[in-house]
Amino acid sequence: MPLLQETDRIMLEITEEAMKFFPDLRQEGDHRPAIRIAVMGTGGTDTGLGLVPDEILENDLATQHGEFTVVIDKKLMEYCQSITIDFSHGEPNRCASLSKRGFAIKAKNPVKL
To answer: Mapping DSSP to helix (H, G, I), strand (E, B) and coil, where does residue 42 land?
Structure first.
């Protein structure tokens, strides 16, 4: 069952499978208090949302999911409308980048630069 957080008709869904891999986002000794949903990529088709350890900022929406605080800029969340975070195990016997193994983050309104 996915974990849900709703704020003013804005929805964030994190699947249980994705939550299993959240600890991998922090490297040993990293004490930043939150995992940020952020715009990443080089523009065009490479642009999307990603996850990075970060600080909690004044303009963030913050939600608690298990032991993790997940944050996103309020304006980015309003733009995306809803976000689902899942984890894809990719294709077997291929390297991670070719197999598409990793977090799969989908927004109702995709980010385009």
So the answer is: coil
Q: Give pLDDT tens digits for 68-80.
A: 999 999 999 999 9
Asked whether 49 and 39 are in contact (CB, 8 A), the reply is yes
Query: For residue range 77-107, what is the model confidence (pLDDT) as tens digits?
Result: 999 999 999 999 877 776 655 667 789 999 9
Structure-derived torsion over alpha carbons of residues 85, 16, 100, 42, reported in degrees to the nearest 10: 20
Q: Which long-range contacts (CB under 8 A, 24 or more apart) does 35-38 make?
A: 35/68, 35/69, 35/70, 35/71, 36/60, 36/70, 36/71, 36/72, 37/12, 37/70, 37/71, 37/72, 37/76, 37/83, 37/85, 37/105, 38/72, 38/73, 38/76
32 in Cβ contact with 55 (< 8 Å): yes
Residue by residue, DSSP assigns 85-113 as EEEE---TTS-HHHHT-EEEEEESS----
